[in-house]
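Appendix B, Record 12. Input sequence as logged:
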Amino acid sequence: MNQLFKDLLSIALFVALVAVIPVLTESGVTLNFVMMALFACLIAQAWNVLGGFGGQFSFGHALFFGTGAYFQAIAQMSWGWNPWLALPCAMLAAGLVGAWVGALSFRYGLKGSYFALITLAFAEVFRIVSLSVPFTGAGVGLMLPLQESWANMQFGSRAGFVWLILGLVTLALCVTAYLRNSRFGAYLQAVRDNEDAARAVGVNPFHVKTWATVMSGALMGSAGAFYVQVFQYIDPGIGFGSHTSVEALVGAIVGGMGTLWGPVLGAVVLHVLADVTRNLFGQMPGINMVIYGAVLIVIVMFLPRGIAGLSEYLPKSWRRHD
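Logged structural output:
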């Protein structure tokens, strides 16, 4: 049984377990928690494609999130598109923005902290532009009209949104499995580990990193499109705000970069931690964030390879390669 088959089998098992949750419960609180946990998994996995496998740390993934969100909203409100058609086009738009940013950045050899800062700068530029132009609603933002139906991608309960975001997470997991088991993924990891050595054996770092940015951007754009459908509103602060970029990279780093299940574990653990501290210390403003930050620091300090790295401490007979 090759590794790709094992990865796909584990993904199928994960999908089956999560997909049955809306069947077992109609609790809005439970379904909303599952939906937002999966949303966190999606953006962490999107960042992982470029940051974990490609070694290109981005501080501005909100750029792709906002692009997908605004395209989804504008396509429906201004062009009259069906949201099911707008969703893949929103992903394409975010991927094209990724191609543009990647081509500009990698053409001039930007990497490391320089690449991180340039992505942050691009996200800020897009935020400022979206505050000024009328087709984005400027500072007021855009609000989708409520038209509940499956055909309009506005479901009557959270169950529909859980299944929708599960489908997007499944796509992200399949992309990650592809990167773990394909020649392109090997090229990308070779560039991450030693770009000069990869170039010496015939790998084109520019093309590899640019395509990784496209893939990462498209997945992040799908998260933005999903957000608009759920909350029916988007503005520049939400679309291109730094909090989305931080949530994406922290989930991947805490869970374990460059792995299949690390970003999922990290996103779920952080989501649970944030929810628990908020409920326990909601009456004491700021305390929940202090506890959340302290736990996060401890994880980063003592688990440098993320939560997925805990497998190193298991007996050899129990270990499985993530």
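The chain is about 70% helix and 0% strand.
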